[in-house]
Amino acid sequence: MNHIAPGARAGIYHYDEIDRQFVAERVEQFRKQVERRLSGELTEEEFKPVRLMNGLYLQLHAYMLRIAVPYGVMSATQLRKLAEIGRRYDRGYGHFTTRQNLQYNWIKLEDTPAILHELAEVDMHALQTSGNCVRNVTTDPFVGAARDEVVDGRVYAEILRQWTTMHPEFTYLPRKFKIAISGAESDRAAVRIHDVGLLARRNDKGEAGFSFYVGGGLGRSPFVGKLVREWVAEEDFVAYLEAILRVYNQYGRRDNIYKARIKILVHELGLEKFTQEVEEEFARLRGPKYRLDPEIVEGVRQHFAPPPFEEPPDHSEALERAKASDPAFANWLAVNVAEHKAPGYAIATISLKPAGGIPGDATCDQMDLVADLAERHSFGELRVTHVQNLVLAHVKKDELYDLWKQLDAAELGSANAGLIGDIIACPGLDYCALANARSIPLAQAISARFADPVRQRTIGELGIKISGCINACGHHHVGAIGILGVDKKGTEYYQITVGGDPTLTTEIGDILGPAVTETEAVDAIEAIVDVYLANRTGEGERFIDTLRRVGHAPFKERIYAAD
Amino acid sequence: MPLIENGRIGEDAWSFIPDGEPVPNDRPVIISFERWQAERDSFEGRNARLGVRLKSGTLAGAIAADLDRFSLVALEFPKFRDGRGFSTARELRERYGYTGEIRAVGHVIPDQYLFLVRTGFTSVEAPEGTNPDSWANALKEITIAFQPSLDDTAPLSLLRRKLKVG
Ligand code: HEM
Ligand code: SF4
C-alpha cells in the first residue's frame, strides 16, 4: 500500500494513485454513458440507475447532484472547491444533508461531467450517493475527538468505503442500503435507524469488535434495527457484512418498492430465521479471503492519526474571561461546544440553522469562511453532521472566542445545537417531486418563533424533524417532535408525532392527533412546549422524559381542545 | 441473439428448447429448470451436453445437488435491475464449486458486464443489434477493484489493487 503521510492536518484519508485513477476512470465512464444515452443506445430506463449511481437525481425544477463526503469528514481544500462549484454551477449555495453529504439543487445535466472532473481534482466524487447500492457510510461527527470514544469509526467507515465501491455483487440490490457506525458511548450517528447499524466496542482484551443491528429504517414502515449479533470480531467485520448483503440480495423483495428494504425482509422472515441465514452464509465466507487483516486496519488507521496537538492546560484563562464578559458567547459555549479527549481542546458545532433560515443551507461565502476557520483553528479539517450542521473537531479552548466571533459575524454563530431551533427538514415540496407538503417554510417559521436563544436554552434538548412525505428523508419518526407533510384534497397539512428518539434508546414517535395546517402547526409546537414546561420537574427533565412520564393526554388536550 | 464471451461476440453452440418442444439428443441444449424437475428421468443416459435455465427467483441451492449433470447454467435477468443473479452465480462457484459455463440471459446491459465477469459469469446473451464496442469497453474502462471476487483469490488484506479481467 502506498500511504501519503498525513502531515500537519487532522484525520483525512489521503487518496493514493489507485484511488485517483479509479475516480478518473469513473468520470470518463460516466461521460461515455451520457453519450450512449444521448445516442439512444441506452434507454432512459437503463440510464436512470447509471445516473443515480453517479449522484444525479431529477427533481421538480432541475437536476440535483449529491456529492459524497465519506463519513462526513473533509478538508478545508475540499470545502473550498465545493464553494467554487456552487458559485459556478449552482446559485451560490449548497445544502448539507442528513447523510452527511452535500447537495446542489440547481444543476444542468450538461454541466455534470465538468463538475465531476473538478471534484476529482480534490479527490471527491458523487459515486454511490443514490441508487440501489451501499451508500456512503456515516459515522459520529465527533469521531476521533470525543471524550467518550472507544473505537475510531472512521477507520472502519473507510474500509467499508473501499470494500463497497463498485461491489460487483451488491450494486443492483433490491433497494438502497445505508450503514452507520458509532464507536462512542453515546450514539451520535443514529445507528438503529439504518439498514445496518454498527456499534464498535472493545472486549476486555482491548480488541475491537462490532454489534450488528439490522433492519432499521424509516419511511412508510418505520422499524428500529434489531440486534443480530452482539460481537463480531474485527477480522470478521467484512465477512459478516458480506453475509448480510448476500442474504438480502437473494431474499429481499423485488415485487414492491415499498417492501424492498432489508427492514421488511427481517420483519417478514423474523429475526431468528434471518439471523440463521446470515450465520450460515457467514460460516462459509469466513475463510482467508474475507479476513480483515490487522495490518490493513493499521494502515488505514495511520491516515487518521491524531493531529499534532499542542499541550495547552485544560483550563483556559482566555476562555473564562470571554465567557464572563460576553453572555452570547457563554451561551454558545454551553450549547454548541463539546468535550474533547485532548486536554485544552474542544469540539465546536457550527449551526446551519439561523433563526428563520433554511436548515442545512450554506452560501458559498460561508463555506469559504468555514474552510478558512478550519485551517486556522482545526488542522484544516471539518465534518458534516447528520443533523445538517458542521463541526470543527479540534479547536483550542484559547481560540474558541475568536472562532465564535468570526462565525457570528457570518450568521453561523447560532447557539442551538440539539435545541428546538436545530431543526432537520427535508427539501419538501420546494424541490422534491414526491412531496405532499413544503418542509422548509415550516422549519423557517418554527425557528423564527423560537428565535430567542435564552428561551431555546430554557426549553433544552428537543429535536424537531420535518419530512414532506412518508419517505421520511427528514427523519420525522425519530424527532422528539416529528412533523409529516400530508396532502388533504390538494391542501398541505401536517401530522404531528411526539416521543421519537434517534439515539440508542431508539423510539418511533406516536401520532398525537389529526393533521393541522401550516399556521396551526407552529402554534401547536408552541403549545406542546408550553405543556412540557408546565409539567417538567425542575430544570433538568428533558422533553422526552416528561412526555414518557405524563403521557400524551395533556398535550392532546391543549392542542385539540378547541375542536 | 449475439453471444458475448471474453469481451467479444462469440459462436453460440447452445440452443434453448422451450418447454413442450422435443429435446434433440445430438447437440447441446438448454432446458428450463421447471422442465428439468418434471422430466429429469428422461435425460438419463443423454450424451450431448445439457444446460439449465433458472428464473431469477430460483436460487443456487435449488440446483446444487444436480450440478454435475449440467455443462451450463443460464441465469435469467427479468430486468437488468434485478441483481439476484450476481449472488446466484457467486454461490454456484464459491459455495457449490461449479466449474461449468454460467450465462446471463434476459435483460442485461454492457454497464453490468464487468460485475458479471467478477461474480463468475462466463457468457452473456445480448440483445439483437447490440453495440459490440460497449461490451468490449466495459471490461477495459475500470481497471481497479477494491474487493476480492471470483477473478482472484487474494485475501482482503489487499483491499485495493489493479483488476485483472478479460
Ligand atoms: C428531493 C429529492 C429526494 C427524493 C426524491 C428522495 C426520495 C426518497 C425516498 C423515495 C426515500 C424512501 C426510500 C425507501 O424507504 O426505500 C427516501 C429516504 C431517505 N432520504 Fe430521501 N429523497 C430526496 C432528498 C433527500 C435529502 C436532501 C436527504 C437528506 C437531507 C434525504 C435523506 C433521506 C434519508 C435519510 C432517507 C432514509 C429514511 C429511511 O431510513 O427510510 N433525502 N428518500
Ligand atoms: S421526505 Fe418526501 S418530500 Fe421530503 S425529500 Fe424525501 S421524498 Fe421528498
From TrEMBL, chain A:
It holds the Pfam family NIR_SIR_ferr. Residues 63-122, 359-409 form the Nitrite/Sulfite reductase ferredoxin-like domain. SUPFAM superfamilies: Nitrite and sulphite reductase 4Fe-4S domain-like, Nitrite/Sulfite reductase N-terminal domain-like. InterPro entries: NIR_SIR_4Fe-4S, NiRdtase/SiRdtase_haem-b_fer, Nit/Sulf_reduc_fer-like_dom_sf, NO2/SO3_Rdtase_4Fe4S_dom, NO2/SO3_Rdtase_4Fe4S_sf. Keywords: 4Fe-4S, Heme, Iron, Iron-sulfur, Metal-binding, Oxidoreductase. Residues 130-283, 423-559 form the Nitrite/sulphite reductase 4Fe-4S domain. This is Nitrite/sulfite reductase. It comes from Azospirillum melinis.
UniProtKB/TrEMBL annotation, chain B:
It holds the Pfam family DUF934. This is DUF934 domain-containing protein. The lineage of its organism: Bacteria, Pseudomonadati, Pseudomonadota, Alphaproteobacteria, Rhodospirillales.
